[in-house]
Amino acid sequence: MPDIRRIEAGGQQIAVRKDLRVPMRDGVALAADAYAGVEDRPRPALVALSPYGKELQALALTMPPQRRPSPMWDGCIEAGDIARVVAEDYVHVIGDLRGSGASEGTHVGNYNAGGVPLGQDAYDFIEWVAAQPWCDGNVGMIGISYYGSMQVLAAAERPPSLKAIFVSGGHFDFYETTYHGGVMWFMPRAAREGRGGDSGWAFTDRITSRMLETYSADEVAKRVAERLADPDVAAWPNLVHVLHYPKHHEAWFDIVLNDLDGEWYEERNPINLARSIDIPVHLQIDQGRGWTVDGHIELFETLTGPKKLVIGSYPPMQSRPWVEEHDEMFRWYEYWLKGVDNGVMDEPPVSVFVEGSREVVTASQWPPKGVEHRPLYLRPRGKLAARAELMGPEHAAPDGFYQAPLTVTDEVQLVSWSTPPVEEPTELIGTGAAHLFVEIDQPDTNFILRLWDTAPDGRRQLLTTGYLKASHRELDEERSTEGNPYHPHTRAVPVEPGVIEEYVLRLYPFAATVLPGHRLVAELSNDEPLADEHNSLLPPDAFHLPVGRPVTHKIYRDAEHPSRLVLPFTTPSAAAG
């Protein structure tokens, strides 16, 4: 029998069923804790599943919510406000995934690759919960980030008792979770290993490498040597360590070894699995983390059942323990789990917060307004203008910057271009692109473009970003449209030094109104600044692998090389003359 105890939290008595054993179809048992009101009656249940450890999630009962840049912020406390869930008359069931925490079994690879499918375990877990005397048979799910991704994997398996899900801040296309524009992102390392504001997965020796299980020792050694031949990888101590000692960092080793998109990432891609989901899905994501905004939009467009998409305001990171969006979530579950007609489904399916104007725009689709993609050209003297440069390269000499590796400098070089102050409110909603004609003197580099809204007093807010590894510049012309390029990332093609190439960066979805007196400023670099207004709001490991070789960049922006931004204007006038 499970240990049932009473605790007091949030001004109420809570009955806690500790260390429940939940059987999977192959005989493995998962561990779970269930929190509910003390009255002995069945209630709807909200299930939270991750490898972060149910004991860590219990800190939601005792720790006030922390926002970045608080040093107490821990990115893995994501299962929701336990006391609030109980107060709303649900059972909050927090489980440890296979091979983590107090659960049995071995976890192979990442959530979308290898071993027993996590969605299959979620199916068994949900149906077990629904059959318990303390549950009324109606189950939803709760939690952000990894917990949000697990909701999609679970719903795709169609457990009969799962009636709806509420996904906030999930990660879906797994290649896009680990490589942005082909540039490695370190956040998955933090989530798995426990670094820089993350406690990490609650695994000990029960996670194994998919690569080590799949390939021979000789093939693994060959792949490791290929990755170490990349100067970016070879210059980063942690990656050298991971590649030489993979059994200490199995999941991260698999990611490092797979730097191209393909079967390993697509096998259980939640975006593809979402085509099987037929229950209601509510998606919520805040602006400022473009890659997750992108994934939520892609998932929304894939789903065919009842659905909602809410894009919230900046800043990008919710608090930990996670307490935001609960009002919205409980309205959703009141309708779908308790049968209360509260009008939530009478509202438009898409809601977008517009930065700057601070208006909320609603519609039936993304983007919520008609968009005209128009160019802003890079011009001499750091200007952005609606008209292209008329002079050729012999007169309009290129801009440029030299970046030394961060092994020998702490300075990240930036080059920027700015519009004049706008004269009337200028609204932009959607995706964008940056077409850059660049000559480099090495076979590869990164391009990182960040678009800022800069106020007259100098304060600024990040609107969107774009990333592209130069060797990943190939476009899928059939899938690319104006202002929305598509890179397959299925092969790397080294750059011929000294040749001018056109690089097209995809700018992640955003929604903002540039107010009178404000300017749009585009910054280009090949590494990220070590600290600025935006980075201070992200976890310490939320940055990208720096370039490991010295690179000189010449950015051409003349009549023959029309470097430009292509932005999604909803207003009839351009931002600059």
UniProtKB/TrEMBL annotation:
- Report domain Xaa-Pro dipeptidyl-peptidase C-terminal positions: 330-566
Q: Which keywords does the record carry?
A: Hydrolase
Q: Does the keyword S-adenosyl-L-methionine apply?
A: no
Cite the SUPFAM superfamilies for this sequence: alpha/beta-Hydrolases, Galactose-binding domain-like
Q: Tell me, what is one Gene Ontology molecular-function annotation carried by this entry?
A: dipeptidyl-peptidase activity
Endpoints of the signal sequence: none
NCBIfam families documented for this protein:
CocE_NonD
Record's protein name: Xaa-Pro dipeptidyl-peptidase C-terminal domain-containing protein
Q: Which organism is it from?
A: Blastococcus tunisiensis
